[in-house]
Amino acid sequence: MITIHSNFRVIALLPKVLLLEWEEQPSEKLLEFLLSYKAVIEKQIKVTRCVMGYQSLMVHLLEDIEKLDWWKQHLNKLLIKTKKQNYNSFILLLFLGINLLKSDSILYLPYLTLLIFAFLLFDKLTKYK
Question: Which of 18, 56, 85, 114 would suit a FRET pair with 48, their CA atoms being 20 to 30 Å apart?
Answer without folding.
Answer: 85
